[in-house]
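quick one: magnesium ion bound model?
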Amino acid sequence: MFTQAPRGTRDVLPEEAGNWVFLENKFREICHEFSYKEIRTPVFEHTELFQRGVGETTDIVEKEMYTFQDKSGRSITLKPEGTAPTVRAYIEHKLYTQPMPVKLFYIIPGFRYERPQAGRLREFHQFGIEAFGSDSPHIDVEIMVLGIMFLKNLGLDDIKLHINSIGCEICRADYKKALKDFLDESKQNLCNTCNSRLNRNPLRILDCKNPECQRALKEAPVVLDYLCDECKAHFEAIKNDLSLINIDYTVNPRIVRGLDYYTRTVFEIISEDLGAQSTVCGGGRYDNLIQECGGPPTPAAGFGMGIERLITILEKKNLLKIPEEKVDIYIAPLKEEYVDTALKLLYSFRESGISAETDYLKRSLKAQMKYANKIMAQFAIIIGEEEVNSGFYTVKDLTAGEQQKVARDKIFEYISNCIRKGCDKFE
Ligand code: ATP
Ligand code: MG
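yep, here:
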């Protein structure tokens, strides 16, 4: 049992780790282009932060949090998402005293006790960005565009942007009432959770994945018909910006997202390659969250993007072709007594930035060469009796299969040259 990773978690093995580093670098690059700065917050927070920040009636807080008591009896929760912790850090460190907007990004693990399935893990990872301090629709668009550009730069040209507005507290109240009145008629078709949501937070029902509930919603009133003039204008401005910079989008009035903090804009970036869990990126505006968490009134917007889901799409489309890492040089001592010489060479190569490996298992020459090929070494230096007695080493070009003798005191210089400039000495 203990030799198996816990359900819903997975290891990233060495052959996959390169993909993660590649994507993390690409994400950092685009954040830099858009002037977002990295923030790192703890893996766990006080449970109350998520109860307040994510919302008591969300799936996350109702049933998915990894919550435990630490040895002092505090209630601690492994972070299920990145926005609430970022907001907490923004308030705690008074980042609101900096010039606005404060634009942040992060790469985090997230923990949710969900039913594991394709695209749904209990420990997953996210790229996320948040922009604090502006209620301009241009910021909402910037956030969408950063996500879209990042994915397009990776070669994903058939992703779809779905947008919606869920209004402000004022106009949403009218919509909530209309939705509740409508759903009261078909209560018996809603799942138990949605029945209890009907009185507490009917909007959440739009996000329910149960097909029965989705059917009951077919003729339901649409939030966009209830927006007040300001919210309508904000949404129109977003659509204008997107057209201005030629970003295709679909207005999807069913999107509410799984977190309670959103106001006005919500959006999803969708890939058909993902099957049921088709959302690779979800985000929106949350103008009240910072104040609700005890900070000064600060409009804000952001997104979260699932890294595992992203990797699934890229793998399906064969867009992850990170070359395996090669080793520059393999040093093969043929006898125990040459090990000291091998080690000295090994560390002088490594010190000068040339990757080098040697034998730690007292293997025969044949076995060592087999290993050298396996780790994709470019060159091998053989240190044997004949070599030592006559003051040279044998250098093998493992790609070309050729070899030649190099004077002992020239070996370092010779190999460095070969690695740096390519080797033209094998005639
Ligand atoms: P979904 O509707 O797919 O459950 P969500 O509304 O819970 O998504 P967010 O909380 O907005 O999603 O998280 C943003 C992104 O993080 C998602 O679009 C998805 O790519 C990823 N994500 C969320 N939960 C998981 C999970 N359990 N496993 C893997 N990825 C996840
Ligand atoms: Mg979810």
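The first helix runs from residue 14 to 33.
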